[in-house]
Structure formats: C-alpha cells, structure tokens
Amino acid sequence: MVVSIGARSLLVADVMVSAEPVARLKVQVTFLRMDAPPTSPAPALPGDARVESVRHCSVPFYRYLYNTVGEPWLWWMRRIATDAELAGLLAHPSVSLHVLMRDGEPAGFYELDHRAGQAVNLSYFGLVPWAIGTGLGAAFLRHAVDDAWRIGLPAVTVNTCNADHPRALPGYLAAGFRKLRAIEEVWPVPLSLGMRIPAHLPRL
Known about the structure:
There is one protein chain. The longest helix is centred in the C-terminal third of the chain and has 14 residues, at 137-150. By secondary structure, the chain is of the alpha+beta class. Residues 1-17 have low confidence and may be disordered. It is built from 4 helices and 8 strands. It has helices at 59-70, 83-91, 137-150, 168-175, and strands spanning 7-8, 22-34, 49-54, 95-102, 105-113, 120-127, 156-161, 178-190. Strands 1, 2, 3, 4, 5, 6, 7 and 8 form an 8-stranded mixed β-sheet that branches.
C-alpha cells in the first residue's frame, strides 16, 4: 500500500516567484474526492505508533515536517512562503496538523483544511523517508480520512501529482477516493531551493 504519499494542495494560490532562475516543469495533477466515509474496518497502527494533533504548531517545526517529508517529492510551494504566511495558516481554526510519532520522533504528518466550508481537503500527507516501507502508510492514511470525516462536511478531497511517490495515486484509490479530473500545470520551481528535480518531469 501507499507509504509516502505526497498529497499537495495548491494552497499558495497564484504562486509568485521573483526574477530568480527557475526550473519550469510540466506536472500532471490529479484531483480526487470521497463522498462517503469508508465502511471497512480501519487498519490499526503499530502499538509503538500514535498520531498527535499539534494545536499550536511553530513555524520551524512545520518547516521541518514539510521539508523532510516533501524533499523527495518536490514539495516546494510552502518553502517559498514567509514565516508570517505560514504562521497565519497554522493559526487558522479551520486548518489542523497531525503528526505520526514512532519511537519518540516524527514519522509523518497530514494537514486538513476546511476553510472553504464545503469539503475537507487533505492538503498534505506523507511519511518521512525512514518510515517508508515500514507498513505505516495504509493505517496512517485511514486515520487521516477518518479524522477528516469527523469534521462533519459532505466530502473529503485530495490531490496528487506525477512528482509524488508512484504508489500515491493507487493508495488514494484503494482508500476510497475517486478521480475527478487530471490537469497539466507548469511549476516555476526556484533553483535557489536546491531541490532535486525528478528526471521524468518535462522541462519547458
């Protein structure tokens, strides 16, 4: 099942990048939706793992989670956000952060956003590199989905892209999401971030 799913929400709308050099990448983004909670029994997390809600997340801790989980999957948009922008996001009552802990350290996180009021968006979801392949993914994703449904809105949404882990999309489908649409986007990724650009993404 899915291990390190890089769910990416385009929450930094109309991303503005300065005149610095960028890699212009063509990326296929797939949008998915779930209209009813899962009815199958939820897989259990291992006994030494737990999920904690971070009620007052600091910007440095958020950057650590985002950068560590997202580095392999080209999560770049929040990297260019200012500390003030991130602090405002994290303080919003309709945005919540949940961290998977194992053996005393973070093993992954997910972020839920229901600011739009019509659905809960699973904005980000993923595991840190050392936790990939350890059997946490299915149970952690189900935890995120169940948490989203407890908010009480009529749908849960998520998106993924072809920069993500290859098992991301199959994992979401197995969890009960359905495809809505797929679109092509052009990402202007600043070279100053020093991120590895996946070789399979076309450059413009």
